Amino acid sequence: MDQLIAVCIDGVIYSSWLFTSAIGLTLIYGVMKILNITHGSFYALGAYMAASVTGALLARGMEPMLSYVVLLASAAAVALIVAPLLERGLLRFMYTKDEVVIMLITYACFLMLEDAIKLIWGVDPYFVAEPYGLLDSFEIGSLTYPNYNLILIGIAVASGLGLVYVLNKTRVGRLLLTVIHDPEISRAMGINVDRFYLVTFSFGAFLASMAGAFTAPTLSVVPAMGVDIIVLSFAVVVIGGLGSLQGAAVGAVIVGLVRSISIHFAPELELFVIYFVMALVLAVRPRGLFSVAEARKI
Amino acid sequence: MSDSKLSIDQVTMTNPGRDRTVVAVLAIAAVVLLAGLVAPQWAKFLLTIALAKGLVVLGLLPQMRTGLVSFGQALYYCLGAYAAGLAGKWAAVSDLMVMILIGGSVAGLLALLVGVLLSRYRSIFYGLLSLALSMILYGLLVKTEALGSTDGFNVAPYTLFGYRPEQDAVRYVMLSVVTIIAAISSLVVHRHLQTPLGRMTTAIRDNEIRLEYMGASARRVIYVNYVIGAVLAGFGGAIVASAVGHIDPEMAYWTMSGEFVFMAILAGTASVLAPFLGASIFSAIHSFAFDVSPNTWQMILGASLLLVIVFLPEGLWSLFRRARRA
Amino acid sequence: MKTRLLTLVASLSLAWTAATSHADENAPIKVGVVTFLSGPAAGPFGVPARNAAEITAELLNAGKAPAPYAQKGFGGAPLQLVLVDEAGSTTTQVTEFRNLVQRANVDVVIGYISSGNCLAIAPVAEELKKLTVFFDCGTPRIFEDGSYKYVFRTSPHATMDSVGAALYAKDVKPNAKKFSGINQNYAWGQDSWSDFEGSMKQLIPAAQVGTSQMPKLFAGQYGAEISALLASGSDIVHTSFWDGDLEAFILQAGPRGLFKKSTVILTTGETAMYKLAAQIPDGVIIGARGPFGVFAPNNELNKWFSSNFTDRYNVPPNYAAYQMTQSFLGVKTAWEKAQAANGGKRPTPEQVIAAFEGITYESPGGKVQMSLGKGHQAVMETAYGMTKKVGGKMTVEKVKRYPAEAVNPPEGIKSADWIKNGFKK
């Protein structure tokens, strides 16, 4: 029984982390039809910025409880500076090109940002452990979990519900849905599609960098971070259906639970179980679980 | 009927001597074979690897002309390498030609199965599913301690038709074998693209639905192209396994597939010679970038890719095309 | 007039030939150094190793080393380093090795951290007939699965770490009932775990395996794995994690009480113990892959190395740095021995190899004996200890040393077989 509870809790924690890491990707795809590989770079940038700034401020005697605010601020700074530059400076001119070509362009940017990170922060791992241990822990049965994990779960739920609310209940959200449905007609109706793209891209980047920033206190920030998260986010988003928020949530839960189960009962399979699930889902439902049927244009 | 009433393609199909590509392939192969006699050992080695990777990219070419970018060629590249290496380890096979054929066949067999599934997909999903499959192979190989896991294992020096070349000639003989295989493969693919099935390749990218209205099967074309790509990737993997003398699961990692796609983009898909040009230039950029600084080589690669995509969307080969027209 | 001109020309040409021939003897020795300068292994291993190579070469060239290494460079000829990044695929590394040998024309290559690279490079070194010294890679397979003339390894292989860990576990927890492990799911982690499990079966037969977690390399998130380890109720937990993964594991396991519930063994813990001193409680078992760093003997050689390194780079040298310097000193010993036997003239590679096989020499970590792999593979003693904070500073206590024969297999027997047969000689 204890093990079952552990599987569920571990699954939920991991799924929340996956969801927060992946929604930025699905949002950008849903609105702009871009499979954004720099997603990984924003995640890593958020983590590095958070770790170095928070660490530096704590060393200067900042009040430890403020570190959570600093984490959020670092993420926002990264997204608000780098994302608009990328979108306005480069991607904007490429929208007419094929989906795959744009993806390759984001791949090229990812490679460049990887090295930029190494040049700015060096190759040594960073860590800032204080925010993780500060909030004490809770116990379930014989297992202890730091309360920090509740923050991760909270962020996942807040982002998910927040996005759903914005998209369905606010004017801006409704306009965004129009843009998703048909950019050409939206432009014809007077909607500033370019501005929506800029805002969406920046917000998607912010979601990624926020995931990175809040993950930073739980581990050691290393140069390889960005690469792994891309593949994981892809798997989650593809399983759920590109562009679908509920899909990303369901995908995250599936992957999180499957992984948790395999770790407790069959640890050796953990390595490729995620690709296996991804291949399985794609084989059965080619466009993901929650995909919208698209009419073929002749 | 005078030649002017026939189209250029009809002329070349009936008269290979008039086909510029065929002539070019044969000429370049001859130049490489001659230059190999005097080139330094390290250059022969580099060229062998570049040609082997060029073979893999040649396999990408028909798929990319359909508009499909496979991010999983590494699956067959790695499979070909392991098949060749294991043939050496378990069945004491050391003949280079046999190893290459085994690599290509095993890869082809798997593609015959997988292609049935993959040919249903288009655009990014084709790429993502192919990526997932190559990562599954990677995971399986890493898990398998009997095959050395991430350490891999070594491949013994090759023999050719029963005879082992002298130490000094080893690199040259391999380079020659690879050049001949590359030339033959190029000509085969070139010919394939001129057959009706091959011509439908570009038609699919233009408008798949209209093609099906005409009674042709887009799936069949994609399937055939996929299997061809796999066989060529298997050849490439087996060659690299023997040339480097070592195999490991990294050969199946998605970044390896990314490299092949990079080379394909770099060179463009206009001619069967382009993949080899792309592979060679990529090796040169990689080598140069690597030497410049350990923390900037990815940046240099990324910047080159971006520049090519933005300014030369048809790849570097389009420079040749433009020069000819001018 | 004519005779004076003649004598001038004669004496000048004599001086010239004397100068050039003397210069030939003291022409710089090109040493190719290959280690990770970028990528995840750079921070904890590659960069300290490169730093060690640079400062060792510098000190040797200036003749500022204690006996018996007082001669400048190798036998009087200065060392010139050619650095190569070990990053990239094995194909890239084999290419770079060939470039080092055939384009840069180095005299000797010292390097390689990745076992995959070591395995691939060894036959190429034989083919190109270039003296190559591996300084860090861990797989025992190099000299157990093959036999090489031009390849040497001046550090013990990874089996020693796991066997030593098991011996220490037996010493401090002889009544352990359950043990578990968390290792990275690739060759290094798989081998480390199977060696440890095998050794424990021999040393504490009553102990059972709780769970063996094998997360993928660089996973970074170990929540579920730590839960599984906690749930298993193990007395001992073994891990061969390194760098970011090790740090993440320590950061995540600490607050969840894993270190209190089980005795944790960090076989490469020496690289993280100072940086994460605040997160590592007392009683954690730390290894340094041999008698390096905090376990190094308190002799003159170690003091010389450690103080020079710390002065230059502001951090004490870790085991990767020790291993690199050990390689240089090994080659130096062999080179000078061969040169002496050659009447003071520059020795050929084959002469250096003949002089290198089977020697015993002193390094900052202690005695190095080239006694396995037909004289090509080194063995040393190993040491493990437990963390203890003294006055707020991280130190080790309860240090136990295990002699070389207890933790390395005998010549001609594969490590895995040796463990399975109860460490019989």
Task: Write a brief structural summary.
By secondary structure, chain B is mainly alpha-helical. Chain B contains 13 helices and 2 strands.
Features:
heterotrimer; B: 326 residues; mainly alpha; two-stranded antiparallel sheet; C: 425 residues; alpha/beta; Rossmann fold; 2 domains; five-stranded parallel β-sheet; 44% helix
Topology:
The complex is a heterotrimer of chains A (298), B (326) and C (425).
Chain A: H1 2-32, H2 39-59, H3 67-89, H4 99-121, H5 130-133, E1 137-140, E2 143-146, H6 148-169, H7 171-181, H8 183-188, H9 193-215, H10 225-240, H11 245-265, H12 270-284
Antiparallel strand pairs in A: 1-2
Chain B: H1 8-14, H2 20-38, H3 41-65, H4 73-91, H5 96-118, H6 123-143, E1 153-154, H7 170-194, H8 196-213, H9 218-244, E2 246-247, H10 254-267, H11 274-292, H12 297-311, H13 317-325
Helix pairs in contact in B: 2-7, 3-7, 3-9, 3-10, 3-11, 4-5, 4-6, 4-9, 5-9, 7-8, 7-9, 8-9, 10-11, 11-12
Chain C: H1 2-25, E1 29-35, H2 42-61, E2 79-85, H3 90-102, E3 108-111, H4 115-128, E4 131-134, H5 141-144, E5 151-153, H6 159-172, E6 178-182, H7 187-203, E7 208-213, H8 223-232, E8 236-239, H9 243-253, H10 258-261, E9 263-266, E10 285-287, H11 300-313, H12 319-341, H13 349-356, E11 360-363, E12 366-372, E13 377-379, E14 382-390, E15 393-402, H14 404-407, H15 415-420
Parallel strand pairs in C: 1-2, 1-3, 3-4, 4-5, 6-7, 6-8, 8-9, 9-10
Antiparallel strand pairs in C: 10-14, 11-12, 12-13, 14-15
Molecular structure report:
The complex is a heterotrimer of chains A (298), B (326) and C (425). Chain A has 298 residues and is an all-alpha fold. Chain A has one domain (2-284): ABC transporter involved in vitamin B12 uptake, BtuC (Orthogonal Bundle), CATH 1.10.3470. Chain A has helices at residues 2-32, 39-59, 67-89, 99-121, 130-133, 148-169, 171-181, 183-188, 193-215, 225-240, 245-265, 270-284, and strands at 137-140, 143-146. A two-stranded antiparallel sheet of chain A has the order 1-2. Chain A is globular, with a radius of gyration of 19 Å. Chain A starts with a helix and ends in a 14-residue tail after the last helix. Chain B is built from 13 helices and two strands; from the N terminus they run ααααααβαααβαααα. Chain B has helices at 8-14, 20-38, 41-65, 73-91, 96-118, 123-143, 170-194, 196-213, 218-244, 254-267, 274-292, 297-311, 317-325; strands at residues 153-154, 246-247. In chain B, helix 2 packs antiparallel against helix 7. The longest helix of chain B is centred in the last third of the chain and has 27 residues, at 218-244. Chain B is globular. Chain C has two domains: 11-156 and 297-379, Rossmann fold (3-Layer(aba) Sandwich); 159-288 and 381-420, 3-Layer(aba) Sandwich (Rossmann fold). Chain C contains 15 helices and 15 strands. Chain C has helices at residues 2-25, 42-61, 90-102, 115-128, 141-144, 159-172, 187-203, 223-232, 243-253, 258-261, 300-313, 319-341, 349-356, 404-407, 415-420; strands spanning 29-35, 79-85, 108-111, 131-134, 151-153, 178-182, 208-213, 236-239, 263-266, 285-287, 360-363, 366-372, 377-379, 382-390, 393-402. Chain C starts with a helix and ends in a 5-residue tail after the last helix. The chains are: A mainly alpha (298), B mainly alpha (326), C alpha/beta (425). Chains in contact: A-B, A-C, B-C.
